[in-house]
Write a structure and sequence with these properties.
Layout: E1 5-14, E2 19-28, E3 33-37, H1 44-52, E4 59-70, E5 73-76, H2 82-88, E6 93-96, H3 100-103, H4 110-121, H5 126-139, H6 145-149, H7 158-170, E7 176-180, H8 188-205, E8 208-213, H9 216-222, E9 225-230, E10 233-239, H10 240-245, H11 250-258, E11 277-290, E12 300-313, E13 317-322, H12 328-335, E14 346-349, E15 358-359, H13 365-374, E16 375-378, H14 392-402, H15 408-421, H16 438-449, E17 456-460, H17 468-485, E18 488-493, H18 496-502, E19 505-510, E20 513-518, H19 520-525, H20 530-538, H21 550-557, E21 577-581, E22 584-587
Parallel strand pairs: 3-8, 3-9, 6-7, 7-8, 13-18, 13-19, 16-17, 17-18
Antiparallel strand pairs: 1-2, 1-4, 4-5, 9-10, 11-12, 11-14, 14-15, 19-20, 20-22, 21-22
Helix pairs in contact: 4-5, 4-7, 5-7, 8-20, 8-21, 14-15, 14-16, 15-16, 16-17, 20-21
Length: about 600
């Protein structure tokens, strides 16, 4: 019996350079999940793009064949006409792309973009397509499918946009789904639900899946076959169980060693000391009003943050964990003064232990300029946070020019020093951002944030878009910088394994509220809130014998009114954050 997709001796190159993919071979059977695993730049994505013939213009398939053998017949994908390929793309074979903001049209509503698949390939009417799309939106975890349908991409968070991409790829029920890092931008509970959804769709339709990922925990939960790639070549391939339990190739072992995980030990954490606080947030709330698309309906209040109280000690790391849309980034932006809190909220910043605090949202222009030198941010997406039109040197010296610090030569020397501090070299100053890998771009973002010698750095998902080995390098870099410069971090993340490693205290947020707060040792080994338990249960582990418990995840990640009575809350009834033991606070009815 022929495989659903067969790749034979595939080699791909750019221009006249050496091949970036060399002699790749693998088969995907109907209903089977094959994981393509490897670091950024290993050739995983370009191999999958070759199957749909959506390679960059300068790329060419130099040798090999890709054959699709589905219910509609055999098709040689590398040689068929463009007209036939249009019937394959999005219909027989769908693809979930890693970067949804680049893949979604900014000019069209989300619902229309997803419905287009059903209009083109199944001939459904607008009303029929809308009904199916709303059902799919509900299944991929949109809290308000109707609102998402009528929203533009810029109105949704990164995680919400990725859910829309997943719905678009799955709504036509393809025979083969190629998922390129489909859950990278998602929080762990949504990731667990989406992986469960993909498995469910596979059982219903017999769909095959090619899963491109660097997360070995996801591989352990999803794959029957694994192909490990490095520098365009296959290092190791075979059934998932033996590769995950006893990898044979040194590169595969290196990937396992770099994967972060929640430590297997029981301990009681020590609360973060409060005597030397660099940042205090007291009673911080943020409410947005959303206009209705219908003129006769009233505006709707969106509660991004509600009564957030956080203290960050100097030289320590406070992590805020939660799903996409929980208010993590909003809280961070308020802490930096980029957003105004609702009346009654206050943010205080202390430049030194023995000085009076600065009220962040009541500063004069001179105070704000001084504050901006002391507090910087590292953004989630290193691709969009660096201007493609500016050389690295210009991007890094720009903060010094704005604050009028140093001569041109001194600014350049400072940029070179910062590059070396983050593990890059001085000769990279003349390059543009597109010449760097994702991990190198994130290092550049850290270096640029360090140019003004800040005391506080807000890290907004700084490792979520990186493969495990590069993620390990960035975390080690942040730890080294903190130890050597006494930096304070406000660390935003949805990856509990990363948080377990770097944080001194963790605050868990859900729907704008802090639902539990404690040191990581206490939080991970004695979680009390159902949502915290769901986050821990949803964390994928690279162990084929420890699958994700979807029932526990769905229980905690469900609506707050479905939780045990002690933890339930609504828009009008919100329990207090109660200290159950020293340093361990839980939002519950006492």
């Amino acid at each position: 019996m022929n495989a659903l997709l067969s790749v034979r001796n595939l080699s791909i190159g750019f221009g006249t350079g050496n091949s970036v993919v060399t002699d790749v071979n693998f088969d995907v059977e109907a209903g089977q999940t094959l994981a393509l695993v490897g670091e950024s730049g290993s050739g995983k994505t370009i191999t999958c793009r070759a199957a749909l013939r959506i390679l960059p213009r300068s790329a060419q398939i130099r040798s090999g064949t890709i054959t699709l053998n589905d219910s509609k017949g055999m098709c040689e994908l590398t040689s068929v006409s463009e007209r036939e390929m249009r019937n394959v793309r999005g219909n027989r074979v769908s693809m979930i792309f890693q970067e949804p903001m680049r893949s979604l049209s900014p000019l069209h509503k989300i619902g229309n973009q997803v419905s287009e698949v059903l209009w083109l390939h199944r001939g459904l009417s607008e009303a029929e397509a809308r009904k199916e799309v709303l059902t799919q939106f509900d299944r991929v975890g949109f809290p308000d499918p109707q609102r998402a349908y009528d929203s533009y991409p810029f109105e949704l968070s990164g995680g919400m946009r990725q859910r829309a991409m997943i719905a678009m790829a799955m709504v036509s029920k393809p025979e083969l789904l190629i998922a390129d890092e489909p859950t990278t931008a998602l929080d762990v509970t949504t990731q667990a639900q989406v992986l469960g959804l993909i498995k469910e769709l596979q059982r219903e339709t017999g769909m095959a899946l090619i899963l491109v990922t660097h997360d070995l925990g996801v591989v352990a939960n999803m794959a029957e076959q694994v192909v490990v790639m490095h520098k365009g070549r296959i290092m190791e391939a075979g059934p998932a169980a033996p590769i995950l339990t006893a990898p044979a190739h040194p590169y595969t072992k290196q990937l396992f060693d770099a994967a972060p995980e929640i430590p297997d030990q029981d301990a009681v954490g020590i609360p973060m000391p409060n005597e030397d606080l660099i940042l205090q947030m007291t009673g911080v709330s943020k409410t947005y009003t959303m206009r209705s698309s219908k003129g006769w309906q009233s505006e709707k209040a969106i509660y991004a943050c509600r009564g957030v109280d956080l203290n960050l000690a100097r030289g320590k790391t406070l992590a805020i964990v939660g799903e996409s849309g929980s208010g993590k980034t909003t809280a961070a932006r308020i802490a930096l003064g980029a957003e105004l809190p609702d009346p009654g909220g206050e943010v205080l910043f202390r430049t030194a232990p023995d000085v009076d605090p600065i009220t962040v949202h009541s500063m004069t222009r001179a105070q704000r300029t001084a504050f901006q030198r002391k507090a910087q941010m590292v953004f989630q997406d290193p691709y969009s946070s660096l201007s493609p039109r500016m050389r690295v040197q210009d991007a890094m010296t720009e903060p010094l020019e704005i604050h009028r610090i140093g001569t041109t030569a001194e600014q350049r020397d400072k940029a070179a020093e910062m590059l070396q501090r983050v593990g890059l070299t001085e000769d990279m100053l003349k390059r543009y951002p597109h010449a760097f890998s994702g991990g190198q771009r994130q290092r550049l973002s850290v270096a640029r944030a360090m140019m003004l010698d800040p005391q506080l750095i807000v890290c907004d998902e700084p490792t979520s878009a990186l493969d495990v080995s590069v993620q390990e390098q960035i975390l080690s870099l942040l730890e080294h910088l903190q130890d050597s410069l006494n930096l304070s971090y406000l660390f935003i993340s949805h990856d509990l394994a990363v948080v377990a490693r770097i944080a001194d205290e963790v605050a868990v947020m859900r729907r704008g509220l802090i639902v539990e707060q404690a040191p990581p040792e206490t939080l991970f080994y004695n979680p009390r809130h159902p949502y915290t338990k769901a986050l821990i249960a949803a964390q994928p582990e690279p162990d084929i014998n420890r699958p994700i418990d979807l029932k526990l995840v769905s229980l905690g990640a469900g609506a707050p009114d479905s939780w045990d009575e002690a933890f339930r809350f609504s828009d009008t009834v919100i329990p207090s954050l109660v200290e159950l033991e020293p340093g361990h606070k839980v939002r519950c009815h006492v």
